[in-house]
UniProtKB/TrEMBL annotation:
<feature type="transmembrane region" description="Helical">
    <location>
        <begin position="124"/>
        <end position="140"/>
    </location>
</feature>
<feature type="transmembrane region" description="Helical">
    <location>
        <begin position="72"/>
        <end position="91"/>
    </location>
</feature>
<keyword id="KW-0472">Membrane</keyword>
<protein>
    <recommendedName>
        <fullName>EpsG family protein</fullName>
    </recommendedName>
</protein>
<keyword id="KW-1133">Transmembrane helix</keyword>
<feature type="transmembrane region" description="Helical">
    <location>
        <begin position="103"/>
        <end position="118"/>
    </location>
</feature>
<feature type="transmembrane region" description="Helical">
    <location>
        <begin position="180"/>
        <end position="203"/>
    </location>
</feature>
<dbReference type="Pfam" id="PF14897">
    <property type="entry name" value="EpsG"/>
</dbReference>
<keyword id="KW-0812">Transmembrane</keyword>
<feature type="transmembrane region" description="Helical">
    <location>
        <begin position="278"/>
        <end position="298"/>
    </location>
</feature>
<feature type="transmembrane region" description="Helical">
    <location>
        <begin position="310"/>
        <end position="332"/>
    </location>
</feature>
<dbReference type="InterPro" id="IPR049458">
    <property type="entry name" value="EpsG-like"/>
</dbReference>
<feature type="transmembrane region" description="Helical">
    <location>
        <begin position="147"/>
        <end position="168"/>
    </location>
</feature>
Length: 383
């Protein structure tokens, strides 16, 4: 855990110092912590395999901008470092715009809740999410063409971000929440018919991710009740809607934008919750936006002093951070590329804890020993 303790401690110290001239140092530290990791993160091996596949000029179905990065950069370490820097750069820009005075507090929230998953594991979608966060600056500023441009760019890293195009007319046409809620509930009522159209398009055009959407999901549509995450997001929306009525926030356009995206998140959750994991992952950008916005709004909640609220939240999110490390199969121990040579002469080129943890997960999911061995073999873990 030593590496993760250093990471969290560094971010905590930056929060205590709270000096804007140290933001670039923080960006460099987090970039290096991510970029120089070795076999850390659930998708680290898979992205390494993707890199090798692209370099060997083999065909692979992946978004064009991520393919281009892998094609141009000479090695996988540089790919990891560049993607980490780009993603964190956009996140820093967003947080700085959202609340410059409490920059380090919001950053600590991001690092302790999302950094492990979206900067060390699911990095391709993590980059798309960071671009979405940055693009919301242009929603705040009502520069909608720039918003659309960055959504297009983000979608070329991970196609799930194209859903964010639907946010544009909500702001451009100033659609009221009441109309949005009615529209989405109508879509929910006719979800079976929508699925039939979606199924037809997937099969006709051979859209990827079909395995997530077809099959078992079709049966789920018959009994798709209200799920806990939807209820939580309803409560979040109602809280923000209530907060926006406060006299001090009535003219705060940031709160207006946050409320609209919270409404979009809530209703998208209702509509997509039965369409499988990728559909739910498609609404992650809006969840992360709302959670980070909550860190901005916390100063307007309750009469407790801001410092006490911040310390309490940081304590809770720190516990979550280390819990996430412990339950993940590929986070502990944290290793850097400098230990790579230690594995060169070993039969299994992966830390034993990670190897047996991931192997057990595959077995529990029903994969055969041969399938598991093949997974490790093509990723260079075993021969």
């Amino acid at each position: 855990m030593f590496g993760y303790i250093i990471c969290v401690s560094f971010c905590f110290i930056m929060k205590l110092m709270n000096r804007k001239e140290l933001k670039n140092i923080t960006l460099i530290f987090l970039t290096l912590f991510t970029g120089l990791r070795f076999n850390v993160g659930a998708d680290y091996l898979s992205y390494g395999y993707i890199f090798n596949t692209i370099k060997s000029n083999q065909n692979i179905r992946i978004e064009p901008l991520y393919w281009l990065i892998n094609k141009i950069l000479p090695n996988y370490i540089l790919v990891c470092s560049f993607v980490a820097f780009l993603s964190l750069y956009f996140i820093f820009k967003f947080i700085n715009y959202l609340d410059e005075k409490n920059f380090y507090f919001i950053l600590f929230g991001y690092v302790s809740i999302y950094y492990l998953q979206w900067n060390m594991s699911t990095v391709r979608q993590g980059l798309a999410i960071s671009i979405f966060l940055y693009s919301t600056i242009f929603l705040f500023e009502k520069k909608y063409k720039k918003y659309l441009f960055f959504i297009l760019v983000g979608g070329l890293f991970h196609k799930t971000l194209f859903l964010a195009f639907l946010i544009y007319p909500i702001f451009k046409l100033k659609i009221k929440d009441r109309f949005l809620i009615i529209s989405f509930f109508c879509l929910f009522i006719f979800r079976k018919e929508i699925f039939s159209i979606l199924e037809f398009l997937i099969l006709k055009y051979r859209i990827s991710y079909s395995s997530y959407i077809l099959g078992f999901v079709k049966n789920q549509l018959l009994n798709s009740g209200i799920k806990k995450t939807f209820i939580i997001r309803v409560l979040i929306y109602l809280s923000i809607a209530y907060l926006s009525k406060k006299q001090i926030l009535k003219t705060n356009y940031k709160v207006y934008v946050i409320k609209k995206i919270a409404c979009f998140l809530m209703l998208s959750n209702l509509l997509l919750q039965s369409y499988g994991n990728v559909a739910i992952r498609a609404i992650k950008p809006y969840e992360i936006f709302i959670v980070l916005s909550f860190f901005y709004l916390i100063k307007y909640l309750t009469r407790i002093t801001l410092k006490l609220k911040q310390i309490s939240i940081m304590f809770i999110t720190t516990i979550y951070f280390f819990y996430y490390v412990s339950i993940g199969s590929m986070y502990y121990p944290y290793e850097t590329i400098f230990v790579k040579k230690n594995y060169e002469n070993k039969v299994i080129k992966l830390h034993p804890i990670k190897y047996y943890k991931t192997r057990k997960i595959f077995k529990d999911e029903g994969y055969s020993e041969e399938q598991i061995d093949e997974f490790y073999r093509i990723r260079g873990v075993i021969k």
